[in-house]
Amino acid sequence: MRSVLPETIPPQRPLRGRQSEYPGVSTLDDFIRSFEVAAQQAPMAFRLSPHILSVINWTDPLNDPVRRQFIPLESTINITHPAAKFDPLHEVDNSPVRGVIHRYPNKALFMATSICPVYCRFCFRSYAVGTETKSVKKMRFLPLMKQWEPRFQYIENTPSLHDIVISGGDTYLLEPEQIVYLGDRLLNIPHIKRFRFATKGLGVSPSRLIDPNDSWIDTVIELSQKGRKMGKEVCVHTHINNKQETSWITRLGTQRLYEEGVIVRNQSVLLNGVNNSFDQLSELVHTLSDMHVEPYYVYQGDIVRGAEDLRTPLSDSHELEHQIRDQTAGFLIPRFVYDVPGPAGKRPTLSAQNYNRHLGVADLTAPRLQGHHVKYLDPLWSLSKDAQKEVQSHFADQSSDRASSQEAAAA
User: Mapping DSSP to helix (H, G, I), strand (E, B) and coil, where does residue 196 land?
Assistant: First the structure.
């Protein structure tokens, strides 16, 4: 970092008119010290690709939207919410076989690996992805074919499944032979009608898409074309959060996929200081659309321990969806959703009920919840000091009540 950072660090601009979070960082040494402290506490290991390093604006690192996603700094607003977890979607509880997450009636996720070309600070799968850190002992999923067999057997023996997400980790780090094996096995299961490879590769290592000596993309193209002949859909789901992550190489790579007929969809996460302003998000939507990448989802951030400075209040999603709607064709408007923990699945953020802006709490429901509600909780930094104390006191009382109940049951 010393080779690229300036001696004097420009001050942070307030995020959407909110408080700055790095009051003690004004020099190169301050920045490095702040990073070292934050890295010790982070749930995710530190890993960047050459492409990501090249698109960060190192002359203004506090305000850079790419830096925020991957390089932690000690932040005054990274206040751990008492409801925060390393597995906020309860994936482990919905895993009938190790490496298969089955939360939807006809869709499941196949964990092919637990490594990625980069590690996002806000990863909702921090319980498994990446190397171990001081705060998290990881549940690892190695990309070994012999370990995949029980997962395939579960899928083959569950005829209600029609849709599979091959994820992890990142499928970009699988060998082409492994991609072929995964694809052929799934294509040959009669009840599987579609599957997608989940990867950040397009945004973090796009040069592989145009490298004539790299056969990863050739393999995906071949599987997509094979699937079409069988009447099945094989596509790519990627993850780009800010226009700055893209380059001319990204455009060449996505053009190649477009010419070969591969469907590519993007799933963004709404992140504080990254894409939660109208200008940032509209630029992203137009950039993706121009590359023939469908701006499919904008997720509300999950309540992950150690990354609360990046999470946004529900009100940001509501405001931005209203603003984006008249900016482009209807089929290019992303769906703003919150992935409700457990079996409920993705719900439109605008469907939230009883939103208490003071306490930052809203109710979401779904048919599979059978009348019950799930709470969405805004990050503590977005609340007043009094509201923060009220929320923390509420959770402390709940914890005390559970402890008393457990003691009574034991007695």
Answer: strand
* SS3 state at 166: strand
Does the predicted model carry a pTM greater than 0.85?
yes
pLDDT along the chain (411 residues), means of 10: 93 79 94 95 92 97 97 93 92 95 96 95 92 86 91 98 96 96 98 98 94 94 98 98 97 96 98 96 97 97 94 97 90 95 88 96 88 91 95 84 52 52
Facing residues of 376 across strands?
Answer: 362
Output the 3-class SS for 33-52: HHHHHHHHHCCCCCCCCHHH
Q: How far is CA 298 from CA 155, 159, 236, 352, 387, in A?
A: 28, 30, 17, 15, 27
Three-class secondary structure assignment of 293-324: CEEEEEEECCCECCCCCCCCCHHHHHHHHHHH
**For strand 335-340 and strand 294-300, is the pairing parallel, antiparallel, or unpaired?**
parallel
Give 361's contacts (C-beta < 8 A, 6+ positions apart): 355, 375, 376, 377, 378, 391
Whether residue 316 contacts residue 356, with contact meaning beta carbons closer than 8 Å, is answered with no
